[in-house]
Amino acid sequence: MNRWTWQQLHDLEYVTVPSWQEQGAQMVFTARSGGGSRPPYHSLNLGLHVGDVDEVVLENRRRMMKIFEAGLEDMVSCQQVHGNAVGVVKAEQRGQGAMSDQTSITGLDGMITDQPGLILATFYADCIPLLFFDPARQVVATAHSGWKGTYLRIAEKTVAAMVKKMGSCLENIQVFVGPGIGACCYRIQSELLYKVIDGFSDFSDIIYEDEVGYTWDLKATNEQILMGAGIPADNIITCPLCTACDAGRFFSYRRDGGVTGRMGAAIALRK
Questions:
Q1: Which single residue of 58, 117, 231, 269 could bond 226 by disulfide (Cβ 3.0 to 4.6 Å)?
Q2: Residue 127 belongs to a domain with what CATH number?
Q3: Mind listing the pLDDT tens digit for each residue in 239-255?
């Protein structure tokens, strides 16, 4: 049985993990429907940096916040610079990046908090969303893991920060590997292929070859990074949905030629 599911609330469709809700954390990964954006960003585009109308995007974000029974002032986002820096978010940072990219927390691709009602939000159009929850310590985190973040092992960096800075125990940390581009669609060229082979020489079943070339399984790579960092396999929930395959439900940077919207991954501890 899947430990993730589709749910619908306030006319928005999103992926979530019901058991996390029961333990005190609300998590969503939005589909592309239910918003006000026009093509090529139709309809629930949550990215302020893609060329869409800002006021429409902000209204789309407000719709996502309704799932949390919260407003934009309760949301915080980071720059997402395709690195592996992870930071702890405090209550006084509430609202940063919510209404303007210019106010996003600089230099980070990962955020951690133990503040109830503070909603950590990151945005996607193929990269892999990683959501973390420690129900014992009541800590949540999010990490943006594209190919660069995966190669730089941001998943491992996030786990280490939760342990060092928040007192989490490895056996209590649960991780959701969300919808993103799958091995079916993520073709890579030889230069990146050799980097992956060298960087993950002890990993299995992450590179596939066919008559066209090579593909890289970013989700499987992140799973093995997490297990190598000490996360029990049973604590990792992976959603197999490919954003590039499903144009009806998801934006995809690669499929759409770079001109597209962004889904949102958001997580918060319940107040």
A1: 231
A2: 3.60.140.10
A3: 999 999 999 999 999 99
